[in-house]
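S1.2 Input.
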Amino acid sequence: MATAECISEPPDEVAARRPARVPNFDPTLGVAVDRDRAGEPMHRLVAVGDSLTHGFQSGAIFNTHLSYPALIARELGIYDRFRHPSYERFGGLPLNLEYVLRELEDRFGDKVSPWELPLAGLRVRDLMDRIEDFWERDAQPEGRFATRNHNLAVYGWDLYDANTRSAEACRQDIEAPTDALFKQLVQNANERAALRVLAPGPEGQQKLSPLQTAAALGADGTVQTPGEGDGIETLIVALGSNNALGAVTELRVCWSARSSYDAPAGKRHYTVWTPAHFREELDMALETVRAIRARHVIFATVPHVTIAPVSRGVGPKLADDPRYFPYYTRPWIGDAQFHPRRHPYISGEQARAIDSAIDLYNDALEDAVRAAREEGRDWYLLDLSGQLDRLAARRYIDDAAARPEWWTPYELPPALAQLRPPPDSRFLASGPDRGRSAGGLFSLDGVHPTTIAYGLMAEEFIGVMKLAGVRFAGGPADSPTQIDFAALLRRDTLISAPPRSLTSVLELLAFLDERYGLLSRLLSRGP
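S1.3 Output.
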């Protein structure tokens, strides 16, 4: 199908849902299982997910060695054996906003003056041209390993993609580079990034999806009995954000109108899946996951995408639901500037409906984990959605009236809590004299975590793994294991050396979004 139908009104099950979902912070969901398994799995950690697991940051997949699975692997003492893709040049794929901003600051200083704007525009165009040429013509598409990766996440992919798309399909979708004069974003960036995830491995397995590749790793068996037993100790599955993320990156609500997958490319038109269609995708993925020989499986819930600062709430909060603002628009548009006739937005009621849909996604994930545990499978639920809600600055921290009864503030590790100001969920703000003045948990694209926030995710998963009896490098499962946030802070350049001008960050975002449709193209499946 060339185009997909678009339904602007939410389904009844979403429209009728008002209260916020109560998170479930018990990973076992109160169901005990027998964890006694023989042998040592060949692969201690395998992760399947989207951009949050891939390690996406500031508009690009780049620092994969600082993704949360890689940070977990360090604590397990297996980082040198944990295979993950790399994207080593020009700040990664498709366009690293921090890389571009640092280049501009080196050239023009803290602020681009009006007479320097044409030169700055040419500089950005030149950088994008070089980045485009490298990734489309010079980069090796297959990556660095001859054997399968352990981090099998691909940014922009949803449940269906992770269960069906393969290296072979990505190769077929990559078109000949056109070197367009005014559309200088890397062509087929998503497929190029995916090839580095999925192409490594036996030639005959190029038709495997990420979940199917995980099954192949699970079939490797244990060290003591190759080919038999559980080949994976812990499998992480963190998918579903891209079933709703487009609504806030594009500021357009288009509910999925059909669940037919005869032409999956048509799904790209949708920005948010109905819960019924999400459950269909989840059921298909669960069929594959059940066949994976993994000792422990951790499913993560889907965060509320309306909390991410890529869409900024403007105006006084809604009287009948103080969680929400009346409008959500681009982060560079201030309250005084905003006008619904001139600026893109989604309404507060649409944001509430999107969150309600995500709540139903997470109910389905919780139900799936509970059913698996009742069958005797050692599956767990990590409620990332609930944890992000506890960090939501403008929704809950600043507004006591909006807080549900279950809400408590998230306790940051001491190394982060002592920062001034403490990191929060606002868009990153900084200046030449005072450094970072707000934000710190989201990178420059307003969607993906900073390095320290990836560390928080790693700690949450580690907590569940320890509950499952997984042993870390520090000793037995009940011994203390904690990410070294002091060391991680030094590696997080957005926190340790923040951009010198917030205005430059927002002006760059506004320029690139207006010229190239940056947010919708970078933060989805790509151009």
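S1.4 Remarks. Residues 12-522 form one domain.
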